[in-house]
Design brief:
The protein is mostly beta strands and 79 residues long. Helix content is 0%, strand content 13%. A three-stranded antiparallel beta sheet has the order 1-2-3, with no helix packed on it. The two termini are 28 Å apart.
């Protein structure tokens, strides 16, 4: 069964989401941040497991997903 791709018609992008943290200093282009919706994951490489770091998904400001919440706490479902 095939589904049509979902469109972001409400302009609910990462940069307007309460879970998104914009990086102030970055090695690459501006407009990137981390999605803090879920707890960080641990590195999957065995050698990296010795490092005590958490990894959050990195997204661009204009990316979006189905977990979006406005900065005022209003959910993604308008009903």
């Amino acid at each position: 069964m095939l589904y049509d791709p979902v469109e972001n018609t409400a302009a609910r992008s990462c940069d307007a989401c309460r879970y998104w943290w914009q990086e102030k200093v970055r090695r690459t282009a501006a407009g990137w941040g981390q999605c803090r919706r879920m707890p960080p994951s641990l590195p999957s490489d065995r050698e990296d497991k010795l490092k005590l770091v958490g990894i959050w998904p990195e997204t661009e400001a204009n990316d979006w997903c189905g977990e979006w919440r406005g900065r005022d706490g209003i959910g993604s479902d308008p009903s």
